[in-house]
TrEMBL record:
Belongs to the lysyl oxidase family. One of its GO terms (biological process) is collagen fibril organization. Mediates the post-translational oxidative deamination of lysine residues on target proteins leading to the formation of deaminated lysine (allysine). This is Lysyl oxidase homolog.
Length: 694
């Protein structure tokens, strides 16, 4: 087994001008393999005449690498390697003495000794390092998965000895997919290690140990009429067990068992750098979390970028460790890794067949349509039916897309105007309310008896799913650094009052005399996901606010709350998204959104929107607040109007001390950044507080 990015770039050979003989197969395929490496580097291999082979490093150049990287789907090459840096290949060495100008569309247009003509050994296998930027139309490459001989096992399943409808299947006869059918495995030489591999592929961390006997000694004479009359010895055992604290979690994934790897260190969650990230290390993570072995090890922040510390680099696991903290790793500095290198995993999970009870109909693509679910009638028959769209929201759509295996929810539709392709008209589900984490709509709350005000098919629920989603997080340290109090004269607050940015008592003030005391701070909102954050409403429905001279694309973009020690709101503010735009971006990323001249609004992946402390409504009105200890809470996208890959990081909290004249913020952090122990200490600072976003 080797570790490979299955980058199957396919090219059609030209009809003339080739130096190498034309391949019999019309399409060439290319891949990067080897170890240690990242997804955009590796030993270059080409598939020709039904066989994978390597390229010799004789006469190799950056021009050769540029051609190959483009065929792999990258924009260009940044380097190349010689002398089998990524390990020696097997089988054929297909090309030798390759000489490209750099502009060729295919490696076969370059000069060479011809296909299969080489005087090299695999000690001279060439490698390439590509720029980590994809050409349009190529699938994501940053996956390191298992490369296997195509004649070996394709899939594995358990066939239960006794037929059952119960899922998942946890025991049975092992069968493997071979050619067009399923075959069994001879048990000669079968070991528990083999079982562990099979269980891992099927989504289970290990085999079930069956040698735990409660009755461990029986000594009957043979004349007893009942087993209870025999001398018995019971296994006392130690049933107390030991709870092991999980020090790893997955964030930002669309499905169960996938996501960005985050580890807990010094009571703070942080990410793992993808240097030398392999399936072995990824499998340790998966099994520690109760899943099977890793299906894919992902690099290059494939599941979005984290915020805060990067705790580990160059993780090196053998695959037998109980926790990733038992593996070798390096501590890192900021020069070693950035969050664009955050590692992620996709784990093997037990098959539950949940996708068989839901479908989409009428959509233009398989990612959208009217939601239809399979329900069971009183007489036991199953027909398909619709879901009432009345209370349907983004969170319900997230569960539907997850159940369908179609990634994240882009939109939850309360009305569907899709073509009726299935002739299904009956509402079979209503009042669906999900937290957003469920695996199936059947796991969500819903009415026992269908109750839907609008029963026409066009008022049934629909979804638009997407393989990627945005993810907004707040820069917590900036809030803490920028906070201050301002006593602002009322005559400067007319526009703010019009937009309801002041507390209710302002209405009875002696305008324009007097002032309001404002808690001011800056908000810097980053999009660390994999899709741009766009307002749900199109420009045609944005509302013009003449006083401030701008459009609102979202009525409520952010909630600002000051909470007492028992969690009660004592002051609140809100921010309409009058201008969602790219204030700044990380190096190499271009701004896309600008509010000037009625421009498109949004936040690009890798960019952030800055709301400075000195703009209107960037505050909480604390005029009526008494001195004391409080919690400042800021929640982005609080009504879940726009879909994100992770809503758990949308809240930020700070301890707040106010003496009547000055204000101090401490321990500002995202809602899920601390360990449970550190979160409890935080909450005890001003008193107890329920850490739930309502």
């Amino acid at each position: 087994i080797d570790f490979s990015s299955w980058i199957m770039a396919q090219t059609t050979p030209p009809t003339q001008g080739t130096t190498s003989p034309k391949p019999q197969n019309d399409r060439l395929q290319f891949r990067l393999v080897g170890y240690p490496r990242k997804h955009n580097e590796g030993r270059i291999e080409v598939f020709y005449k039904g066989e994978w082979g390597t390229i010799c490093d004789d006469d190799f150049s950056l021009s050769n690498a540029n051609v190959l990287c483009r065929q792999l789907g990258f924009v260009s090459a940044t380097g190349w390697t010689h002398s089998a840096k990524y390990g020696k290949g097997l089988g054929k060495i297909w090309l030798d003495n390759v000489q490209c100008n750099g502009g060729e569309k295919s490696i076969e247009l370059c000069k060479s000794r011809g296909w299969g003509n080489s005087d090299c050994t695999h000690d001279e296998d060439a490698g390439v390092v590509c720029k980590d930027e994809r050409l349009p139309g190529f699938v994501d490459s940053n996956i390191i998965d298992v490369q296997m001989d195509e004649n070996k096992v394709e899939k594995v399943r358990l066939r239960p000895v006794v037929p059952t409808k119960k899922m998942p299947i946890t025991e049975g006869v092992v069968e493997i997919k071979y050619r067009n059918g399923w075959v069994q495995i001879c048990d000669v030489g079968w070991t528990s290690k083999n079982t562990r591999v099979i269980c891992g592929m099927l989504g289970f961390p290990d085999e079930k140990k069956k040698n735990q006997y409660h009755l461990h000694s029986v000594a009957c004479v043979g004349t007893e009429v009942h087993l209870a009359a025999c001398p018995l010895e019971f296994n006392k055992g130690n049933y107390r067990g030991r709870l092991r604290m999980i020090m790893v979690r997955l964030k930002g994934g669309a499905k169960l068992g996938e996501g960005r790897v985050e580890v807990l260190r010094n009571n703070e969650w942080g990410t793992v750098c993808d240097d030398r990230w392999t399936l072995l290390s990824a499998s340790v993570v998966c099994r520690e979390l109760g899943f099977g072995s890793a299906k894919e090890a992902l690099t290059g922040a494939r599941m979005g970028q984290g915020m805060g510390p990067i705790h580990m680099n160059e993780v090196l696991c053998l695959g037998t460790e109980k926790s990733m903290w038992n593996c070798g790793f390096k501590n890192i500095t900021s020069e070693d890794c950035q969050h664009v290198e955050d590692a992620a995993v996709r784990c093997n999970t037990p098959y539950m067949a949940l996708e068989n009870s839901i479908r989409l109909t009428g959509g233009r693509t398989r990612y959208e349509g009217r939601v239809e679910v399979l329900s069971t009638e009183a007489n036991g028959t199953r027909i398909w039916g619709l879901i009432c769209g009345g209370a349907w929201s983004t969170k319900e759509a997230m569960v539907a897309c997850r159940q369908l295996g179609l990634g994240y929810a882009n939109h939850g539709l309360q009305e569907t105007w899709y073509w009726d392709s299935s002739n299904v008209t009956e509402m079979v589900m209503s009042g669906v309310k999900c937290t957003g984490n469920e695996m199936s709509l059947s796991h969500c709350q819903h009415h026992r008896t269908v109750s839907c005000q609008k029963t026409a098919a066009k008022f049934s629920a629909g979804v638009i799913c997407s393989e990627t989603a945005s993810d907004l997080v707040l820069n917590a340290p900036l809030v803490q650094q920028s906070v201050y109090i301002e006593d602002r004269p009322l005559h400067m607050l007319y526009c703010a009052a019009e937009e309801n940015c002041l507390s209710k008592s302002a209405a009875s003030a002696n305008w324009p005399y007097g002032h309001r005391r404002l808690l001011r701070f800056s908000s810097q909102i980053h999009n660390i996901g994999r899709a741009d954050f766009r307002p749900k409403a199109g420009r045609h429905s944005w509302v013009w606010h003449a006083c401030h001279g701008h459009y609102h694309s979202m009525d409520i973009f952010t909630h600002y709350d000051l909470l007492s020690s028992n969690g009660t709101k004592v002051a609140e503010g809100h921010k309409a998204s009058f201008c969602l735009e790219d204030t700044e971006c990380h190096e190499g990323i271009s701004k896309r959104y600008e509010c000037a001249n009625f421009g498109e609004q949004g936040i690009t992946v890798g960019c952030w929107d800055l709301y400075r402390h000195d703009i209107d409504c960037q505050w909480i009105d604390i005029t009526d607040i008494k001195p004391g200890n409080y919690i400042l809470q800021i929640v982005i996208n609080p009504n879940f109007e726009v879909a994100e890959s992770d809503f758990t990081n949308n809240a930020m909290k700070c301890n707040c001390k106010y003496d009547g004249h000055r204000i101090w913020l401490h321990n500002c952090h995202m809602g899920d950044a601390f360990s449970e122990e550190a979160e409890r200490r935080f909450e005890k600072y001003p008193g107890q507080f329920n850490n739930q976003i309502s």
